[in-house]
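Hello Y.,

Per our agreement to keep a running log of every chain we model this quarter, I'm adding this entry. I've kept the format consistent with earlier entries: sequence first, then predicted structure.
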Amino acid sequence: MSQRTPQVHASNPSEESLQDSHLFDIVKTFNSLPRSPSLPSGLNYNIWHFSIRHIPLHPPGDILFFVNFVSQFIHIEGPIQYPTTPPTGAYLPQDIQTKAKCIAPLLLQGFNNKLDVSDPWAPAFAPWAWMTNDRELAKLVGDELKAMGVDEALCKVEVATKEQNEQAQENYCGFVGALTKSVNKGAPKP
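Predicted structure for the entry above:
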């Protein structure tokens, strides 16, 4: 596995260079994670589907939704922090390039944080491969990962098949259904 040096160009300790420094750390950590064709348990393939999904609950927002089809393990990162319009703070409609730029660090962060697995003995790991539901997003995320300095093997984002996207949609619907039920369970009765 080749190690790429994360690309950061910082001169003064401005907000931008602090963000670059944080991104440098995220990429450096991610590039140091072990990769294997199977998950650490050895039981399932280490291939992940990710997609941008909208959470319809209050406050609404977009998340990055991960699923491993064989294990049925799901993980979310977010909400995705899109650029806002100063001074109102209103979110702008986002183009696919902006979305790719916003989610690329979240992909790495999810794996750096062990996909939020609470077992202290669970190892952090990088995916063997990943895919998404949109051809343009796959290319742009791959380009963004490359620009960030991610190991070359993971700068290739595959495009999922129709069946894989349907499975991801089914997993997402199950997740949102459980989330909605949980939120409604705690809501005061009228």
